[in-house]
Amino acid sequence: MQARALLWRISRKLTLPVQGLRRIIAIDRAVSNWAVSGLARGGQVFRSHEGGATGESPVVGGGALAVVPVRELAAPLDLATIGQVLPELPSELAPEPPQGIFARLNHRLRAVDLAAVDWAPDLAEEIGSRRWYRGMATLVGLALCALACWPDFSRLEAAPATRLDAAARDEFRSQSIMPLGYGGATGRPMGPRFAMRPVAFVPERAQVELASVLAPGDSLGRMLQRAGVSGADAARASELVAATVPLDEIRSGTRVALVLGPRPAPGLPRPLEHAEFRARFDLALAVNRAGGGLVLQKRPIPVDTVPLRIRGQVGESLYRAARASGAPPQAIQEYLQALDGHISLEGDIQSGDLFDLVFAVRRAATGETEVGDLLYAGLQRGQTAVAELLRWGNDGAFYSADSFTNPTYVQTGPGMLMPVNGRITSSYGTRFHPVLGYRRMHAGVDFGAAWGSPIVATAAGAVSYAGYHGGHGNYVRLDHGSGLGTGYAHMSRIAVTLGERVGAGEVIGYVGSTGLSTGPHLHYEMYRDGRTVNPLGARFATVTRQVDPGQLHAFRARLAQMKAIRPGAILAARPQPAVRQIAMR
Predict the structure, then answer these.
(1) Which pLDDT tens digit goes with each residue over 379-403?
(2) Which of 401, 412, 476, 567 could bridge to 311 as Cys pair (CB 3.0-4.6 Å)?
(3) Which domain, by its residues, includes 233?
(4) SS3 sequence, 198-266?
(5) CATH number for 374
């Protein structure tokens, strides 16, 4: 009985399930029967031990009742033997089944471990098994849930529009905000009263202030008339301005501030009271009405000119490196033109060289700045100066110190200039086209040059075409008069516009590879009476010119002054008069 009490105590402590408790009770009965049979045969099998004597090993710690084996049994006590001799558990000790359907269902659900069940097995494995059917049931259930939650996309019936009668329509229109010309009126119409009376017309403002911008190709008189100025006042204002500044020198985009007076009669243009604009960078003009007529007022703007120096390292492209350093496009174009007359832009400029340029910057007292002419152009490789060119003389040409001792060859005279600094890669005549793959007429000359090299006009003329032209890509055609014309194809960028007049040596674009082209080059054509001719038959004149050696000392002093300017800094001191004349030329 003591052993049975101990086993019950252990089972309650370990919270064993009913099956384990049933097995413990059965083992306890078998042990008790064997112990009784052993005692009946005169052999002691178990004895109780309490407290634990010296040399004995109790199963339970001190003070607890324990079962201690005294001697080994003749046969081992295994579970199979115990199972054969164990009687069934008495019915009074077995748990009673729950009563009711819901209670039994709840009891069975509690016995199932839902967390251990694999609800989403791989349906590609064990096809046809219970595990596979369980996963298929999960998939079907989720699909049914998704279909059950499918939204309703049926058409929604909106309320029909309310039809307004004439009175309601007039009520809404009177409360709308729109011009009177479109039938709108602000507020509620009211009949005449002592505080209000009908008027014949709505009075206009006495003065109207507005601003207008001069568009490209527009004239000052047409712009004033579009702004509402009368024709007589617009013509008089244009006449006054033309007496001071040529009208074609006023840049497009110039903003004109206008003040118009009251109309002399309904429907007539307003008279001009005041007009003010920036005619030049250093001059502002104002047209005011005084004594019944218009008068012109000049307002000179103080302007100083200072040099700005920019240096940088040449990368893949000299132009891009100069732009990244902050040089304006106008100064870079002049810099490339200056170098092109003394070195080869394709072979003499390498990656890692240092470019150096100084250009004039005009600063107005009103805060605006303007880029002037290039003053110095230099190129350095390591510690060696490849080029040191300075603008010198009244003609604005660039010279080096060697020009005072060695003859300088400049492309001038009645002949035509070379369009780009490069070598001829394909001549005029029939050839095998590298892109189309068959022989055809090559109506021009190809010059191989680096990407972005400036292309100049070979002679003065007017731009008769500027844009994309089929296989020519970006194309410019110049009309030089007397039936002579030139064409420039495959440009990366066009620098002129249609109708613009250009001089000999002026940049009209940059070398590229647009159209039917295999690489960056210039396709140069020449036309006579509308038909192409061999450009190499034209005369490219070069004359020799030497600078006065007596100016060498002044030249070197000016060159040292330019090289002493700190890069990126505009000098606070005013420049020399010679520099001012060159920059404001």
Answers:
(1) 888 888 888 888 887 767 787 777 6
(2) 567
(3) 208-300
(4) CCCCCCCCCCEEEEEECCCCCCHHHHHHHCCECHHHHHHHHHHHHCCCCHHHCCCCCEEEEEECCCCCC
(5) 3.10.450.350
